[in-house]
Amino acid sequence: MCQVLVLSVFNGFEGLVQSLYSNFYADVKVLASKGKTIRLSIEQVNKIRGLEGVKGISLIAEEKALLQNGEQQTVVLLKGVDNGYSQVSGVPKKMLHGVFDVGTIDTPKLILGSGIENAIGVESDKNLFPVTVFLPKKKQGSNVDPLSALSEGNANTSGSFAIQQDFDNKYVITNIDFVKQQMKNPKNKYYANGLLMISVIALVCFYAAGNFYVVREASIALLNMDLKGGETIPLGWLFWIFTIIIPLLYMARGIQKKEAVLLRTGLLLVAAIVFTVRYYYHVMPAEVAMLTGGIVFIALAYALIKYLHEPKYGFTYRQQKDLFFMDKLTVESLVIAQTFSGPQLPTDTGTQFGGGSGGGGGASGEF
Does residue 183 sit within a domain? Predict the structure, then answer.
């Protein structure tokens, strides 16, 4: 009787361990026989997909990375996955905060293990500023400057998962194309600032196209409209609504999506609202208006600083970190980890519950 009870207990433990590992790993994994990467053609991928009993396949690229949020940083295993990952893994069903969304190559998102979330001090579902990801560049020699051997990318967090401590304290999941792009040191990385500027210019130009002042004065200059001092333009009421509503919509959308560009552009365009209204309607003397506005904004800024001294809902009063000033970064841990860790070859360790540490199937090309 005692023997039956003991075996029954061990049966329960085995089932628990299997369920924990199967939530993170796939049932079957395909690894490179040598090195860390595997190359598959479309025909090979289709053959794997067509095998009897194969429900789904997912392509995975995994590498050590350094995650930095302000002054807090930690070394993680960054797992890039494709859209088929939810078919072979139970991670999407184990979300602790936020949603399972890895984003795209242009707007990647990070899904953090709950331990990683605490280590870098973010609320993964309310992250306003992006987290910086440092990855080793592919095919870098051993005699290069450590900083030049790393690529730098930025990504917002979309959520966190909680499965088991070994996974929660080690893994971060993101878009596979983002990982491949960073590891290959892509040429378009230098256009990040340019794209940001284009976004700001597009938002400002859209607002200017409907701003009452711009439309009225352009109508006089280009269409030779003869308007007196108090006269308005056709559909003037519509342009007044546009002038006031659009910056507020920018800010509302920026707060909703935790998008700093929309939020800051909206705040900047509030000044355009004040200028436009002030240009046509003199409520009070300019010096009184400036003094009153200054007092209001100083009081508002002070109240927000006090309220956001501890980050709330993904917002903080702290200045955003310099995302491109690498000489302030402590990267020794990542460099040492990459230098002394050789290729990870598959080993026969008996019965395993799955894999997914690198490779897989799902697309052609090298990754």
Answer: yes
The residue segments making up the domain with residue 200 are 193-280
CA 361 to chain centre: 25
Q: What percent of the chain has pLDDT over 70?
A: 69
Residues 20 and 146 in one domain: yes
Same domain, 34 and 124: yes
Short-list 357, 361, 295, CA closest to 39:
361
Residue 332 CA from chain centroid, whole number:
24
**Is 90 exceeded by the pLDDT of residue 13?**
no
C-alpha distances in Å from residue 54, one per residue of 111, 228, 309, 361: 26, 76, 52, 12
Whether residue 138 is contained in a domain is answered as yes
Q: How far apart are CA 140 and CA 143, in angstroms?
A: 9
Q: How far apart are CA 119 and CA 114, in angstroms?
A: 9
Per the listing, tokens 């009452």 go with 212
In the chain, the number of structural domains is 2
- 293 inside domain: no
Q: Is the pLDDT of residue 245 over 90?
A: yes
Q: Are residues 50 and 67 in the same domain?
A: yes
Domain boundary among the residues 249, 280, 311 is at 280
pTM beyond 0.70: the answer is no
Q: What pLDDT, on a 0 to 100 scale, did the predictor assign at position 90?
A: 83
Residue 118 burial by Cβ neighbours in a 10 Å radius (0-12, 13-18, 19+) = middle
Separation in Å, CA 104 to CA 79, 137, 174, 277, 295: 14, 20, 9, 41, 43
Contact between residue 179 and residue 63 where contact means Cβ atoms under 8 Å apart: yes
CA separation for the pair 263, 260 (Å, rounded)? 5
